[in-house]
Amino acid sequence: MSMTAALVWLIVGLVLMMAEVLSGDFVLIMLGVAALFGAGGAALTDNVVVEVAVFAVVSVALLVLGRPALKRRFLGGPGTRTNTDALIGARAVVISTVDAESGGRIKLAGDVWSARSLSEGHSLEPGTTVTVVEISGATAVVAAEP
After folding, report:
1. In the prediction, which pLDDT does 81 show?
2. Which domains, ranges and CATH numbers included, belong to the chain?
3. Are 129 and 107 a contacting pair, CB within 8 Å?
4. Which end of the chain has fewer surrounding CB within 10 Å, N or C?
5. Within 13 Å of residue 87, how many CA atoms lie on the same side as its CB?
């Protein structure tokens, strides 16, 4: 009898974990893992109350403790910058004189960008290493490295 119950818990757990692929909300995977623990409880005992209690305790623990950590890790991704945000703080090399008024050109991440200096009245000569402070449209705002 317990092997049949364990098989049912196992099937339910696997179905829930496969359904998680469609939802992507980290709820069904938690319930699926809890159902696998319920299968373990069913394999060890013939007591339905123990099986359900194991499932309930593991479900609540995973939903309360595991799910928030997984969401932060996979969905929130602290500090993952993309596009032009990823260029801020990057180093570049001045190709043609850069100033605050007329701008100039820099080599940034393998590409040539138009640039202007952060400091007014201060020009940056070719070969100078600069740091990207901001991206304004298609222009990099740069400052000389200390």
Report:
1. 65
2. 2-76 (no CATH), 83-144 (2.40.50.140)
3. no
4. C
5. 23
